[in-house]
Amino acid sequence: MRKKFMAVLLSVCIVSVFCAGCGQKEEAPAAENVAVEAETDQEAKADQETETGEGTQEIAMVIDHGGSIDDKSFNQGTWEGIKAYADANGKAYQYYQSMEDSDEEYLNSFELAINAGAKIIIGPSYMFETAIYKAQDMYPDVYFMIIDGRPQAGDDATYTTADNTYSVIYAEEQAGFLAGYAAVKDGYRKLGFLGGMAVPAVVRFGYGFVQGADYAAAELGLSAGEVEISYAYTGNFDATPDNQNKAASWYQAGTEVIFACGGAVGQSVFAAAEANNGKAIGVDVDQSGDSDTVITSSVKQLEVTVKAALEDYYAGNFPGGVDATLGVESDGVGLVMDNARFENFTQDDYDAIYAAMKENTDGILDGILKDADAESADQLPVTYVSVKVME
User: What's the order of all strands across the beta sheet hosting 59-63?
Assistant: First the structure.
């Protein structure tokens, strides 16, 4: 049967698509490794079908046009959560990459996934806020999960999370706080924060990083301004020569460690660190395998979050209508310690600060400012850290 919305297979990627219920397992052929990209040409939609068949992919993930499923960051962490749950429970899954970054094309991708049998669709970005806002009403029998965003009408004012939608954001300011705290405790005094686009999640990471460094400096009895932080946004989430050159110039000027917070921007920072005897801190997922310069990563528990949501969905307990914020209280954010390359900061040190934050000892958690609490990083009320916002 021809689908209302068909696909053109534009690129072959490493994507596991497991077709559950394929009959006798010993005779089932290997699944196709394909990424489906939404196609806007109506004739092409009518004439082609996905190679994996119709009505089979129960779990779908949609990514933006500029993203990558194996970005070693946010998308990959989300996808690994889907894979882990689906492979363990015999569920079919697939991801779809939109032809362009627009609400119309995101909706096209949703429809393509639904025509292929999707029962639950996951959008791992604030970029899907408006499309999911519309889709949750258009497809009341389909369930949606948005990560790092809240469904909104496109005006940044009208927010509605319907009963078939689960919204998750993370307390990035807490994750960033832990990164800044650990860096100073480990002995670094000249730090850098290089973010991607100045969207709320990235800003929260950066503000938390500054405040964590300040908190550690106070505990160590350092002098006012003894910790220096160079701070900038690249305006993109890409690995580019410009981003690498910017990071390299910081290292050459004396910066010891840079917190790279911007998707593929991290790859530029890691390359600059390798070339300039510097250190780096990764983001979103464990990036220690990307470079020996990565001393730790400030992570969101993406895989855990996605697996838990899928478990709830298939158990009939989908948290629809919920806007969740996951932080230390729910172990939603943290630092990678198993693969850390610290010299002085220990597991005991980490456990102590994490417990203090979780218990809000001396109001530590309440005192961490977020993206809307200051116009720029150099306006944060810190004492022991000097912040220089770079162009």
Answer: 7-11, 35-38, 93-97, 59-63, 120-123, 143-147, 165-170, 322-326
CA distance 128 to 132: 6
Q: In this structure, are strands 7-11 and 35-38 parallel, antiparallel, or unpaired? A: antiparallel
pLDDT per position as a tens digit, 31-86? 333 344 444 333 333 232 333 334 479 999 999 988 888 877 788 889 999 999 99
Q: Which residues pair with 388 in a beta bridge?
A: 230
Question: Does residue 330 lie within any of the structural domains?
Answer: no
Entry field: residues in the chain: 391
Number of structural domains, the chain? 2
Strands 190-195 and 227-233: parallel
Range of 40's domain?
A: 7-170
- Asked whether residue 184 falls in the same domain as residue 48, the answer is no
Looking up tokens 């497991």 gives 18
> Rounded to the nearest 5 degrees, what angle is found at the Cα of 169, between the Cα atoms of 316 and 279?
130
Instruction: Report the DSSP beta bridge partners of residue 38.
Output: 7
Examine the domain organization and report whether 227 and 145 are in the same domain: no
Burial status of residue 67 (CB atoms within 10 A of its CB: 0-12, 13-18, 19 or more): buried
| Same domain, yes or no: 136 and 260 | no
Give yes or no: residues 81 and 190 share one domain.
no
The verdict on residue 151 lying in a domain is: yes
CATH number assigned to the domain comprising residue 350: 3.40.50.2300
pLDDT in tens, 161-218: 999 999 999 999 999 999 999 999 999 999 999 999 999 999 999 999 999 999 999 9
Alpha-carbon span 147 to 301, nearest angstrom: 11
94-108 pLDDT tens trace: 999 999 999 999 999
Residue 11 has a pLDDT of 35
